[in-house]
Amino acid sequence: MKRLEEQPVAKLSLSGALRSQRVYEVEDALNAFAGKNQHKVIVDLTQVGHISSSALGLLARFSDECRQANGELRLVVTEQNILNLLQITMLDKVFEIYGTVAEAEEDF
After folding, report:
1. pLDDT score for 40
2. What is the mean pLDDT of residues 93-102?
3. Are β-strands 96-98 and 72-76 bridged in parallel, bridged antiparallel, or unpaired?
4. Is the pTM of this model over 0.85?
5. Are strands 96-98 and 2-5 parallel, antiparallel or unpaired?
6. Where do the domains of the chain lie?
7. Contact residues for 44 (Cβ-Cβ < 8 A; gap 6+)
8. Virtual torsion, Cα 64, 53, 97, 76, nearest 10 deg
9. How does pLDDT run across 35-64, given as a tens digit for each residue?
10. Do the Cβ atoms of 76 and 46 come closer than 8 Å?
């Protein structure tokens, strides 16, 4: 996990499998952003091959928190199985999903 706290957009790059055991680690990183009043966040999932339902729930909750603070959580996803999961669960309606970090940064 790599965390960049750049103003005005914070970035979190994740890799491997995001199983339930790693959710607390990701939650700590997201809470650190919120603690520094950084509510414009990009989470890079391009190196993630699996994501658990608890990790998706965490991202959805943090997305709501960002919106309440006039910010936004954006996801960068290229793995087809994760894109399919987001569509099946209709979370593609909750998140702004981009193909690259640069694209996600453009609109902020």
Report:
1. 95
2. 95
3. parallel
4. yes
5. unpaired
6. 2-107
7. 11, 12, 13, 14, 76, 101
8. 110
9. 999 999 999 999 999 999 999 999 999 999
10. yes
Give yes or no for a contact between 16 and 48, defined as CB atoms under 8 angstroms apart: yes
**Is residue 2 over pLDDT 70?**
no
* Residue 12 bridge partners (DSSP): 3, 43
pLDDT at 3: 59
Residues 12-23 have pLDDT tens digits of 999 999 998 899
Q: Side by side, which strands form the sheet with 2-5?
A: 2-5, 10-18, 40-51, 72-76, 96-98
Under 8 Å between Cβ of 35 and 63: no
* Tokens coding 49: 């091959």
Per-residue burial over 46-78, b if 16 or more Cβ lie within 10 Å, else e, is: bebeebeebbbebbeebbebbeeeebbbbbbbe
Domain formed by 2-107, architecture: 2-Layer Sandwich (3.30)
Residue 30 near residue 58, CB atoms below 8 Å: yes
Q: Which residue do the tokens 């006039």 mark?
A: 70
Average pLDDT, the chain: 92
